[in-house]
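Below is a filled-in request sheet from our internal design queue. Each sheet records the structural input a requester submitted and the sequence that came back. We keep these sheets so that new team members can see what a complete request looks like end to end.

REQUESTER: design group, bay 2
PRIORITY: normal
MODE: inverse folding
CHAIN LENGTH: 276
BACKBONE (tokenized):
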């Protein structure tokens, strides 16, 4: 039978974890295996409600199931947040190009995440750690609004223990009741990008988060000396088909669903409204 990219694969929710007050992680087992490259996205269908795009947050090396971490934002995500273990949904994909891991080999890798932007970055980090020896250095700078908004708290604290394999810098915009994890600073995520101790000539940076955070993190890294070609951004646009046919996700000459969602800043920096 030929592959139909519009037809969702029947998928069972096997676990739901409350990450923060408005973010949940869903573990999903599709009836037919869906293998993805880290950074690619899938369309998640809620029967009789609609569908929305999300990037898996689990390791691409795990083939039987996938985690998707979802922030409640509107109609579809509200419906997803009301789902429980055992419910049946649909998944189609994977779509897009994901992170070009081969281009990262031999380099010092800086990952900068904000808020729910840590979801695709967790998948990337797990993929990088799987083949740790291929990369010279891995550093994660992550910012959340408050200590309660830090995603994957157990995981993040575990990553902090992985030094020197992984260097983690955490920050929150605002502390609440002194509940910051050990080593977590106070300030915007850009403040963690000072004194990086990275060899800029042999480094690439990957940024994912809300548009305003991506904008200021990009400006900060340019200021630090990163070249536009060495900064990778995960772009979000409203999507429909997911396969470059409908034009909903146009970004200049590109379609985010087909040519992205990961772009080098040098490829898109002249396009008007990239941070909108
Ligand atoms: C490639 C890709 C990967 C994504 N991965 C994740 C992920 O891993 N986890 C996650 O929580 N979210 C992710 N998103 C964002 C997610 O798709 C949107 O939050 C979701 O589509 C909102 O649908 P809704 O029907 O709940 O909201 P709507 O009712 O459509 O809209 C609610 C509000 O959010 C705004 N909005 C809608 N879609 C987007 C969007 N794509 N980007 C920014 N604002 C939007 C609307 O303008 C409106 O203000 C991703 C988006 C893309 C394009
Ligand atoms: S979502 Fe249809 S062209 Fe990208």
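RETURNED SEQUENCE:
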């Amino acid at each position: 039978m030929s592959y139909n990219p519009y037809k969702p694969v029947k998928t069972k929710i096997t676990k739901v974890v409350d990450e923060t007050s408005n973010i949940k992680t869903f573990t999903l087992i599709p009836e037919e295996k869906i293998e993805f490259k880290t950074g690619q996205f899938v369309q998640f269908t809620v029967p009789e409600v609609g569908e929305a795009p999300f990037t898996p947050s689990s390791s691409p090396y795990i083939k039987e199931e996938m985690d998707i971490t979802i922030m409640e934002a509107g109609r579809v995500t509200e419906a997803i947040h009301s789902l429980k273990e055992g419910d049946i949904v649909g998944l189609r994909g994977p779509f897009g190009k994901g992170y070009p891991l081969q281009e990262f080999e031999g380099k010092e890798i800086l990952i900068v995440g904000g808020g729910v932007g840590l979801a695709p970055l967790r998948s990337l980090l797990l993929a990088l750690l799987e083949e740790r020896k291929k990369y010279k250095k891995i550093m994660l700078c992550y910012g959340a609004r408050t200590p309660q908004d830090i995603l994957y708290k157990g995981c993040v604290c575990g990553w902090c223990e992985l030094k020197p394999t992984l260097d983690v810098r955490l920050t929150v915009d605002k502390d609440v009741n002194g509940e910051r994890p050990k080593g977590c600073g106070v300030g915007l995520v850009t403040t963690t990008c000072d004194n990086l101790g990275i060899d800029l000539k042999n480094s690439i940076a990957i940024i994912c988060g809300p548009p305003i955070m991506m904008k200021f993190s990009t400006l900060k890294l340019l200021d630090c000396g990163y070249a536009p070609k060495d900064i990778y951004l995960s772009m979000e646009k409203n999507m429909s088909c997911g396969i470059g046919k409908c034009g909903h996700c146009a970004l200049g000459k590109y379609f985010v669903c087909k040519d992205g969602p990961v772009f080098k800043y040098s490829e898109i920096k002249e396009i008007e409204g990239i941070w909108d």
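SHEET NOTES:
- The pocket of flavin-adenine dinucleotide (ligand 1) is lined by residues 41, 52-55, 69-71, 73-77, 116, 119-120, 236-239, 261 (CB under 6 Å).
- The chain has a mean pLDDT of 94.
FILED BY: M.R.
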